[in-house]
Each structure stands twice: as structure tokens, then as C-alpha cells.
Write a structure and sequence with these properties.
The complex is a heterodimer of chains A (174) and B (330).
Chain A (H helix, E strand, L loop, with lengths): L15 E7 L2 E7 L5 H8 L18 E4 L2 E4 L12 E3 L12 H8 L9 H14 L4 H8 L10 H17 L5
Parallel strand pairs in A: 1-5
Antiparallel strand pairs in A: 1-2, 3-4, 3-5
Chain B lengths: L4 E3 L4 H7 L4 E4 L5 H6 L7 E4 L8 E3 L5 E4 L4 H5 L2 H6 L1 H8 L4 H6 L2 H6 L24 H4 L22 H7 L3 E6 L2 E6 H4 L18 E7 L8 E6 L10 E10 L2 E10 L6 E2 L1 H7 L6 H12 L10 H19 L6
Parallel strand pairs in B: 1-3, 2-3
Antiparallel strand pairs in B: 4-5, 5-8, 6-7, 6-8, 9-10, 10-11, 11-12
Classes of the chains: A alpha+beta (174), B alpha+beta (330).
Bound molecules: flavin-adenine dinucleotide, iron/sulfur cluster (SF4) and FE2/S2 (inorganic) cluster (2 copies).
The site of one FE2/S2 (inorganic) cluster (FES) has 11 residues of chain A, from loops.
Chain lengths: 174, 330
């Protein structure tokens, strides 16, 4: 699906105004109903950190946080995010200070090509917010929504295990 | 994805009145948008129901639990009432999809997710479920993931939900609201067998909205188990799954529920086997006999004969786990 605002559309299909908090700033936008959140981020807002791996909910590369919960942006309509608070990988750092989860990914070399990484990191922050994972087996199970074609799973798991206590202390909210 | 009109009603009545044959309700969107991206369904109008007041759980006068249709799969699985009183349901939900999808997916939408038959998902081939009368390439084609029970000449698809297998075992009741008013549907009657109308997955009419799923008080919290067998350890649909729940008096079975997922067009519940189990003693022989009885009419296709063996072993294991370990050991 690649429909954007510039595409010719019948008059009855009007853009809808939405208002959301994106990485801390309030944004007022016009979106066509069939625009996914992932396409809004990447095509209209130039936030290309969130990746399109499969576009079908199968890989997790598009994972972002909506009201602190991890979701797949590819299976979310932008128009349905009206009023939401969204955080993408671009919004995790505090100025020049990386998020503890980002630091742990670097420390543990938790990527090879890096394509899955933004989704992995957002998903891991969502995992921390949930506060459910205890120990590496549960981390693996609760990170199963993020595939890594390079197979960096062991380092990803180690990074998350390392960062979880830090994230949970700070409440994990980006 | 085709262009469509979008509305977001804030009352149940308004949602129902907006609906038509060419509209769809959208909740989590995790199945509907997936299908729309493949042009397998092309609604003219999406009715966003996420503003409706259906996102809570409440207790019923009889001591059961009423689950709003918009409660997310994650919130439901991790709700303290469900974890404690209906662990079978928690286990089944957590065995399905991914954490992201469970955050998005709704209770109502989970019931209405469509089959994962690969021919159904491929718009370039015929499929009786997608275009009635066009044929069923799965019957003579690749049918490793297809049904072994209750299939028809026209369709051999399976229902993919894990949550529904547990809801069937727990005797849930589906509450719906249509233009003609509200009605309730017993879970066992909600989904259909394909018969000669495989395009219809369930009994819901176009204008009907699922409002609540009601759980009766009996949660089988002491002795239940959900076992899911799949091609990889996580994030895959069931080849076979079993929801087993027992009420025991010492070694003697007082009540039994046994439902299979991944083997039929709906969660497969066999009440004759459940009744036979009552009064039997917990043993491997009892459970094996139950499995054999349940599977005696299985009709495997060219590539899914393994499911009969797999289901037999899975039933025995799930019942044994339910009897011995209990469902609270999550
Ligand atoms: C990659 C992937 C893996 C998955 N793995 C599993 C798995 O292992 N096990 C499993 O069980 N599921 C699995 N799922 C399916 C997932 O659980 C369903 O897609 C989800 O439960 C659907 O809920 P939803 O709210 O997103 O529905 P939507 O997509 O919003 O809607 C689905 C259908 O239900 C209708 N609808 C929704 N709510 C209502 C209502 N209240 N009343 C009337 N109609 C309504 C819609 O019109 C639509 O036709 C997987 C999905 C994906 C994408
Ligand atoms: S099994 Fe059913 S869904 Fe699959 S191709 Fe045949 S008719 Fe279509
Ligand atoms: S791009 Fe969204 S899950 Fe793959
Ligand atoms: S690092 Fe390459 S896909 Fe994960």
C-alpha cells in the first residue's frame, strides 16, 4: 500500500485531521484513512528509523510504542492513532544521551546489518514497560515478535537482559 | 489497499446503524488490514469501533466474567482474574501471535480472524471461501496445515485462533448487538463447519457487532492445560493445539472439557468424549482411549496424516498435564 496525500483520490475520500504526540511534540496532521502509521512515519514525516520488513505483522521491524505499548506500525491505520502518544526509535534518546536500551545494544554488539534493530529496540523498551519478562528464556519468548535475518539473537537477548533493570527503574517510558 | 470511507462512532447503536454489507468494523486491524493489503477483502467503509465503551472486564452476578469485545489480547491474558481463575485462557492467548500483535488484537476480532490457508491468501488462485463456487485447490494441492475433522468437499480450511479453543472449552457465551437488538450465541455454535457455504466462517450477521464474551464461573483453574504444537517454538500458528480442563475428585474425573485447535474449521469439541471421561480414573489408558475416540472419524488429506498421530499424542499429554501439574503452573 503506497497511497499518499499526493495520489489522486475521489472527492468522497477526504483526509482526516489527526492530532498526536510524536516523540514528545504535538503534531497536527491530515491523513487519508488507508495510510498506515508506518507509511505516515516513513513517507510523510521522514522518520525512516521504523522499517518495513514484511508489511504484514510478521517481522516486527516496524515496531513503535503507542501510549507506551509496543505495536506493529504496518498493521495500524494512522487515522486510528488520533490522540495517541507515539514513540519511534528516533524519540528514545534524551538529547545526546542514548536510551539505556540503545546503549546496551551497542555494548553487546546486538546487530549485524542493523535492519531489524530499531524495531528490536522499541520492542525491548515495550517489553520493559510490560514488566513481565524474568530471565533470558522469557526475554526470548517475549521478543519472538521481532525477527532478525542476521541471527543476532543471542546478543540481542544479552543486551536486553542487561538493560531491563535500568529501564524498569526509570519506568521504561521513553 | 483500496480507498474507503472511515467513521468512528461513539455509541454501540450508532456503530450498528452505520454498518452495511460493504462495511467492516475495525478493532485491532491485525487481520482486516492484512487481508485488505492483499486485496482479499475490499470494504467501502471502515467503522472504527475503538471508541466504543467495550474495553473493560466486569464480574457477572453469577460469578463469571464479562469481557468487553475491545479488551486487547494482552490485557486479557495478563488480567489478574483471568490469570488466576481462567489460566487456560491466559495460556492459550499467550501461545498466539506476538507481544506486539497481542497488544493490538481485540477479543472480538480474534473470534473473526480468517483462515491461514495459503490458497485463501493467494488472490490469483480459486478458493471457495473467497469466491464461492470457484473450487478448492487445497483439497488436491498442498494440505499439510489443513483440517482432519469436519471438513467438506468444498473446503478443508482450519480456524487459526488459539484463544477460541480455550473459550470453547470454558463454555463462553458471545453477546452480540444487531439492528434487531441484542442476542447471545453459545461459543460452540458461534463458528460453523464449512459444509456447502465455506464463505461463512460463523453465525454473525453483517450488521452484528460482538459486544462481550461471557465466561461462566467454572474456570478449571486447578486442572487445565493448553498445549500448542507448531513448526517453530514461538510466533507460529498451531498445527494442532489442545485445551484440556478437568475437575477431579481424587483420581476420578468429575468433569472434563477437551477441545482441539488447528484440526477443523472451528474449535473441535467432542461432548461424547467429554461425557465418557466423567467417572473414569486419571490414567494414561483413559486419556489414550479418549484421544482414540475423538479421532476415530478423522479424515486426513494427502499431506496432513501426521496431524492424526500428533493430535493423539497432544491430547494425552495435555490431559496428563492438566491432571497432574494443574493449569496454574504457567
Ligand atoms: C503474523 C501474525 C501471527 C498471528 N499468530 C496468531 C496465532 O498464533 N494465534 C492466534 O490465535 N492468532 C494469531 N494471529 C491473529 C490475531 O490473533 C488476529 O489477527 C487478531 O486476534 C484479530 O483481532 P483484531 O482486533 O486485530 O481484528 P481486526 O483485524 O480489527 O478485525 C478482524 C475481523 O473482525 C471484525 N471485527 C472486529 N471486532 C469486531 C466486533 N467487536 N464485532 C464484530 N466484528 C468485529 C472485523 O470487521 C474483521 O472482519 C496472528 C496474526 C498475525 C498478523
Ligand atoms: S481449504 Fe477452504 S480456504 Fe483453503 S482453498 Fe480450499 S476453499 Fe479456500
Ligand atoms: S513490517 Fe510490520 S511487522 Fe514486518
Ligand atoms: S541485524 Fe540484520 S536483520 Fe537483525
Amino acid at each position: 500500500m503506497s497511497a499518499t496525500l499526493s495520489e489522486a483520490t475521489p472527492a468522497s475520500f477526504v483526509p482526516h485531521p489527526i492530532r498526536l504526540t510524536l516523540n514528545g511534540s504535538v503534531r497536527e496532521l491530515q491523513v487519508l484513512p488507508w495510510t498506515t502509521l508506518l507509511d505516515l512515519l516513513r513517507e510523510q514525516l521522514d522518520l525512516v528509523g521504523s522499517k518495513k520488513g514484511c508489511d504484514h505483522g510478521q517481522c516486527g521491524a516496524c515496531t513503535v510504542l503507542r501510549d507506551g505499548k509496543r505495536i506493529n506500525a504496518c498493521l495500524t491505520l494512522a487515522v486510528m492513532c488520533d490522540g495517541a502518544e507515539l514513540t519511534t526509535v528516533e524519540g528514545l534518546a534524551d538529547g545526546d544521551e542514548l536510551h539505556p536500551m540503545q546503549r546496551a545494544f551497542i555494548k553487546h554488539d546486538a546487530f549485524q546489518c542493523g535492519y531489524c534493530t530499531p524495531g528490536q529496540i522499541c520492542s525491548a523498551v515495550g517489553l520493559a514497560n510490560e514488566g513481565r519478562a524474568q530471565g533470558s528464556a522469557e526475554i526470548s519468548e517475549l521478543m519472538s515478535g521481532n525477527l532478525c535475518r542476521c541471527g543476532a539473537y543471542n546478543n540481542i537477548r544479552d543486551a536486553i537482559e542487561d538493560a531491563l533493570p535500568l529501564c524498569q527503574q526509570t519506568g521504561g517510558e521513553s | 489497499m483500496n480507498p474507503f470511507r472511515y467513521s468512528k462512532p461513539d455509541t454501540l447503536q450508532a456503530a450498528v446503524e452505520l454498518s452495511s454489507a460493504n462495511s467492516r468494523f475495525i478493532a485491532g486491524g491485525t487481520n482486516l488490514l492484512d487481508l485488505m493489503k492483499e486485496n482479499l477483502t475490499r470494504p467501502e467503509h471502515l467503522i472504527d469501533i475503538t471508541g466504543l465503551p467495550l474495553a473493560d472486564l466486569s464480574e457477572t452476578p453469577s460469578g463469571g466474567v464479562m469481557i468487553g469485545a475491545l479488551v486487547s489480547n494482552a490485557d486479557l491474558a495478563w488480567h489478574p482474574w483471568i490469570e488466576r481463575r481462567y489460566p487456560l485462557l491466559s495460556q492459550a492467548i499467550l501461545a498466539g501471535a506476538s507481544p506486539q500483535l497481542r497488544n493490538m488484537a481485540s477479543t472480538g476480532g480474534n473470534l473473526l480472524q480468517r483462515t491461514r490457508c495459503y490458497y485463501f491468501y493467494d488472490a490469483s488462485v480459486p478458493c471457495n471461501k473467497r469466491s464461492p463456487g470457484s473450487g478448492c485447490p487445497a483439497r488436491s494441492g498442498l494440505n499439510r496445515i489443513h483440517a482432519i475433522l469436519g471438513a467438506s468437499e468444498q473446503c478443508v480450511a482450519t480456524h487459526p485462533s488459539d484463544m477460541c479453543v480455550a473459550l470453547a472449552a470454558l463454555d463462553a457465551v458471545v453477546h452480540v448487538l444487531g439492528r434487531g437488538g441484542p442476542r447471545t450465541i453459545e461459543f460452540a455454535d458461534f463458528h460453523r463447519l464449512p459444509g456447502d457455504a465455506p464463505d461463512r466462517d460463523n453465525q454473525l450477521a453483517d450488521d452484528e457487532l460482538i459486544t462481550y464474551i461471557e465466561l461462566p464461573p467454572a474456570g478449571f483453574a486447578e486442572h487445565s492445560h493448553y498445549l500448542k504444537i507448531r513448526d517453530r517454538a514461538s510466533y507460529a500458528f498451531a498445527l494442532v493445539s489442545v485445551a484440556a480442563a478437568l475437575e477431579l475428585d481424587g483420581p476420578v474425573i468429575r468433569q472434563a472439557r477437551l477441545v482441539l485447535g488447528g484440526v477443523a474449521h472451528k474449535p473441535w469439541r467432542d461432548r461424547a468424549v467429554e461425557s465418557w471421561l466423567v467417572g473414569q480414573a486419571v490414567s494414561r489408558e483413559t486419556f489414550t482411549a479418549a484421544a482414540d475416540a475423538l479421532l476415530q472419524d478423522a479424515e486426513p488429506l494427502a499431506h496432513n496424516g501426521f496431524k492424526v498421530k500428533l493430535a493423539r499424542r497432544a491430547i494425552v499429554r495435555a490431559l496428563s498435564e492438566a491432571a497432574l501439574v494443574g493449569g496454574t503452573a504457567r
